[in-house]
Amino acid sequence: PSLAPAAAEYALSKNFNVLLGVKIISCENNRVLIYTNSGLQSIVCDKIIRRPVAQTDSKMLNCVVSGTITVKKETMSIHDDCGLLAGSFNSGDIMNTSVSGTINAENIGTCGGFVGSFLSHPIIENCFADVNISATNVNYLGGFAGRAFNIHAARCGVTNVIAIDGKAEHISGFSNTDDKYNSTYLCYAKNDITYSGKDAYIGGFGINTAALHTFNCYCTGNIKTVLPAGSTDHDDSFIYSFCDSGSFYNSFSNMDIDAQKVKMFGFDFRYGNLIFNSETSFDEVDPDDYSLKGELTGISSADFKNKDTFKDYDFDKMWKWDDSESTIKLIYE
Fold first, then answer.
1. How much is the pTM?
2. Cβ-contact 86, 59 below 8 angstroms
3. Which residue among 38, 132, 281, 282 has the highest number of C-beta atoms inside a 10 angstrom radius?
4. Which of 215, 212, 201, 197 is nearest to 313 (CA)?
C-alpha cells in the first residue's frame, strides 16, 4: 500500500537521513516526491519499512533516486555526510536500488555517490550509482560510499566522474573502509578521478582497506593528479591501482594513472590474487613502502583483451566475456 506523506517523511528521515532539509511533497502510488535544498527529487519506492526497533531493521527496496545535491559548509566537520541516496545509513538493508545525478560538495567530511557513510553491518545488494561528483575540501570521498564500517556489498557498481579540488585525504573509486570487516562480492567501479591537490591516498577501488575482502571485483578508468596552480612542492600522495591493503580474490584493476610528483604507487595486500595493467599503473614502486603477500600479476593492455588471461576466473557463475568489446565483465552486466 502507498504511504501517506507523514508516514513517508517519518520513514525517510528516521531511517535514512536523506539529504539535508528533506521535505515530503507528496506520496502517491509509492512515488515519494521530496524537496531538498537543491530542488525536487522523486523516489520510487516499492517498500519503505520501519520496524519498532528503529534503524537496526530498516530497509529500502526497489527504489530509483535521481537529482542534484549542493551542500556547502563554511568549515569542514568529519560528522557531515553527503550522498545522493542518503547522508548516512545505519544498519539494515538496501536492495535493488539505483541513484543518478550530481553532487556538489564543499567542506564536507564524508561524501559518497550512493551513500555518504555506511555504519554498523549494512547489507547492500543489487545497487548502482551513476553520479558526477564535484568536491572541494573533503576528508573521505568514494564513488559508491565515502566511508563504510562492516559493509557487505554484493552485485553493486558505480560509473562516476569525480573531480576534487583543495584538500582531500582518502579518495576511492568504490569505497573507503575502516578497521572493521568489510566484504564486496561481484562489484565494480568505473571512474574518471581527477584530484587537483596534494598529499592524498587514492585508490581505484578502495583506500584504508586493511580489513577489506573482495571477491570477483574490478575497477577501470583513470586517476589523474594535478598539483595546485603555482605549486612546485613534492606531492606525498599514495596512489593504488586497486586498494592499499586487504585480501583480493579473482579481482583486477585496469586503471590508467597519470600522476605528478607523487611519492609512490604500490600495493600492500595480504592474500589472494590480483591482476593489474603494468603499462598504465606503475611507473615507480618503492619496495620498502609496501609488502606483497598475495599473488600480483602485471599484464599488458593487449592481455586485458585476451580471454585466456583470465583462465582461472569462473565464467559459469561469476564472469562473462564480451566478444564485441573484447573485455571481461561481471555476469550480471
1. 0.81
2. no
3. 281
4. 215
